[in-house]
Amino acid sequence: MESPTLNTRAPRAAGMSWPTVLTALIFVLLLLVPVYAAVTDSAYVLLQFSRILVFALAAVGLNLALGYGGLVSFGHAMYIGIGAYCVAIASHYGADSGLLHLLLVVVVTALIAAPVGLIALRTHGIAFIMITLALAQMFYFLAVGLKQYGGDEGLPIRQLSRFGELTGSHVGLYLALLACLGASLLLLRRVIRSRFGLILRASSMDARRVRAVGTSPLAYRLLAYVLSAELCALAGFFLANLTAFASPAYMAWTSSGELIIMVLLGGAGTLIGPLVGAAGFLLLEEVLKGLTDHWMIIMGPIIVLIVLFLRNGIWGMIVSPKEH
User: Fold this and answer.
1) Which CA distances in Å does 100 have to 5, 140, 161?
2) pTM for the structure as a whole
3) In contact, 246 and 92? CB cutoff 8 Å
């Protein structure tokens, strides 16, 4: 009586374990990065992987809007800049409390993302792309015009976000980033499997049919947009503390384009894809920069070929579609 029960459960466990084990392995390897950096006395390795985690967090945020909501936003880098400037401007006036910085990031981002999303979501397709690009450029030039905060030269951060003994610790910042990324992925997993996620994905396929069954997709898409903006702003908070600097360049449309590439490279609409895409993009960039000054000429075609022939991205190639 016991053997049939074991036989029927085993295939399910095996089928579900592969992406879970692979994800756990990725996080274990990331957890070992500070150890490797300490053993080899390489601060650069820790800095580079911290940068990867920052953009992975931002890509996870964009993936909620782009991958699951079908919202191709060309302005999400704006929120990275907003998060960085919240830290920089508060520090400029002597407010260095880390909790205050986080509160400012969350509140300011929500106050900006909600009306921006509400305006942009009145459109769709190319119009949505263009309006998010236009609004992001408006904030970019606003940052450039704020000469009292450095203008186009950016604003150095005199005092990083204060979190007791962890203040200024590169290892502490890295581990906080890793924990935040893990928590964001777990939250996103729950959101996508909820009724909210179901309606969001249905809206990306056919919003008219969603409305036809009596559900307005606008509120769900707006909430997804704001949540994705918050994750990007949180990445900006970490980026400011990593570089001790805030710059309008963080908001540039090229940065938004790179975020989209990271999502597509790893696999849009997959949970771990943005992390894999961010790591792949930034590591490939680093390798090619070491080979030639004309690295973009090589990197461009490589990314185009990957996106064209791996429709589900790198993560989609590794795991089957049902296991994303």
Assistant:
1) 54, 24, 9
2) 0.91
3) no
- Both tokens assigned to 75: 């302005």
Residue type present at position 115: P
Helix (H, G, I), strand (E, B) or coil at 276: helix
Residues of 280-307 as b/e, b for ≥16 C-beta within 10 angstroms?
bbbebeeebeeeeeebeeebeeebeebe
Q: In angstroms, rounded to a whole number, what is the distance separating the alpha carbons of residues 72 and 268?
A: 11
Q: Check if the beta carbon of residue 149 is closer than 8 Å to that of residue 270.
A: no
- The span from the CA of 238 to the CA of 80, in Å, is 9
- Express each pLDDT in 159-210 by its tens digit: 899 988 777 789 999 999 999 999 999 999 999 999 999 999 998 888 888 8
DSSP label at residue 194 = S
C-alpha span between 245 and 38 (Å, rounded): 25
Cα separation of 244 and 242, whole Å? Answer: 6
Beta bridge partner(s), residue 246: 155
> Other C-beta atoms within 10 Å of 10: how many?
10
